[in-house]
Amino acid sequence: MTIEEKMFQKTKINYPKLLKYGFVKNKDIYTYTKNIINNHFQVIICIEKGKINGHIIDLNFNEEYYNFRNETFTGNYVAKIREEFEYILKDIKDKCFTNKTFIYDQTNRIIKLIKEKYHDEPQFEWEDTPDCAVFKHPKKWYGIIMHINKIKLDFNTNEDIEIINVKLDPNEIIELLKQDGFYKAYHMNKKYWITIILDNTLSDKLIMELITKSYNLVN
């Protein structure tokens, strides 16, 4: 995970604030530049389609400087450049972004829909897993949102994802597992629970229908 990805997890861009901050828009790309280290280096931050990428240019040689991304480089000079870069990113984050409870847009939409329908908030019950939240009524879980690696669902890709586990009738689980978007329950009883990746593969409407079934089952 890059410095930018770590910094801007669980955030949402406020585009008007980008322009007020000093970003320049060209078509769909927002660009911000700032010189650092006595004008020896230039930081360039580009935002395109919601993705944030940063570059540092060594102005003495007019070429891109990469050493600050290598954590094995711990000298004072490279550490200072890395610190300046991270400071700029944090300032942009604080002034041009808003925080989200979770990373995926669909996850945040589902949380909002659950709150509107059942008036339940996500409950974060474990300090060692701050990205795991449960929905329960009154004390029984009917939904568990988790941040896991895709490998744990038997994928061959090393990618972090967000999922929701819901409780369903075992016969329905068997049928759903034949369809795209459904997976054997992670970290739950696979006979009674099923996992859904919240990456827009399935519609909010369908997911909420399954959450309703789970809610009714535990009650």
Describe the 3D structure.
This protein has 219 residues and is α+β, with helices and mostly antiparallel strands. The chain has two domains: 3-99, no CATH class; 105-218, Aspartate Aminotransferase, domain 1, CATH 3.90.1150.30. It is built from six helices and twelve strands. It has helices spanning 3-7, 15-21, 76-96, 105-118, 170-176, 204-218, and strands spanning 11-13, 24-26, 29-36, 41-48, 51-58, 63-64, 97-99, 133-136, 141-149, 160-167, 182-184, 193-197. The strands form three sheets. A five-stranded antiparallel sheet has the order 2-3-4-5-6, covered by helices on one side. It has a five-stranded antiparallel sheet with strand order 8-9-10-12-11. A hairpin with a 4-residue loop joins strand 5 and strand 6 (63-64). The radius of gyration is 22 Å and the shape is elongated. The mean pLDDT is 92.
Question: How does the SSE layout of this entry go?
Answer:
Layout: H1 3-7, E1 11-13, H2 15-21, E2 24-26, E3 29-36, E4 41-48, E5 51-58, E6 63-64, H3 76-96, E7 97-99, H4 105-118, E8 133-136, E9 141-149, E10 160-167, H5 170-176, E11 182-184, E12 193-197, H6 204-218
Antiparallel strand pairs: 1-7, 2-3, 3-4, 4-5, 5-6, 8-9, 9-10, 10-12, 11-12
Q: Enumerate the spans where pLDDT stays under 50 for 5 or more consecutive residues.
A: none
Query: Can you tell me the number of structural domains?
Result: 2
Structural class: alpha+beta
| Strand elements, count | 12
